[in-house]
Amino acid sequence: MLELQELGEELVALPADRLRQVELPEDLRLAVEQARGMARQDDARRRQMQYIGRLMRAVDPQPIRAVLAAVRGDSADETATLHRIERLRSELLADERLLFTIASRSPSVDLQQLRSLRRAALAEQEQGRPPRSQRALFRLLREIDRKTATPGGGADDERE
C-alpha cells in the first residue's frame, strides 16, 4: 500500500502534460488533480494521498511505472532515444546535408525552421552565447522523432 501511495505521490508531482499521457480511471485522475491543488503539506493532503493509494489498488501500476520511468529518464529506451537525438543534432550542426535526410524520413517537417535553428545555433556557438537555439533544435528533433515513431507516422499521441 505504501508503494502505491508513493506512486501516487509521483503522479501528483508530474507536470500536467505528462499526467495526461497516463491512462487513469476518472476517480483516480480527479483525486490526483485535487491533490495537485493542495499547496500546503498538511493533514488534508496526507489524507488525500492515502485516498489516492487506496484508489491505486484497483489500477494496474505497470503502465504508470513505465511513464514515470520515462519521465525520470530511468528507461533505457528513453535514454537511448535522447542520446540518438543528441548525436543527430551534433551531426546536423556539422553537416547541413543531413537536413534532406531528415526531410525524406519525415516529409511534414518544416525545413525552413530546421535550417534557421541550425544557423542560429551555429552563431551562438561562435559568439559563445547560451545555447538557446541548440535546445530548441533538440526539442524540434525530438518532436520529429516522436511523430515518426508513432504508429501511422503522423498521428501524434503526445500533447505537445
From TrEMBL:
Gene Ontology biological-process annotations? ribosome biogenesis
Which Gene3D superfamilies does the record associate with it? Answer: PSPTO4464-like domains
A GO MF label: rRNA binding
Which keywords accompany this UniProt record? Cytoplasm, Ribosome biogenesis, RNA-binding, rRNA-binding
Q: State whether keyword Chaperone applies.
A: no
InterPro entries reported in the protein's UniProt record: DarP, DarP_sf
Any one GO cellular component localisation term in the record: cytosol
Q: What is this protein called?
A: X96 protein
Q: Which organism is it from?
A: Candidatus Accumulibacter adjunctus
Q: Which gene encodes it?
A: yjgA
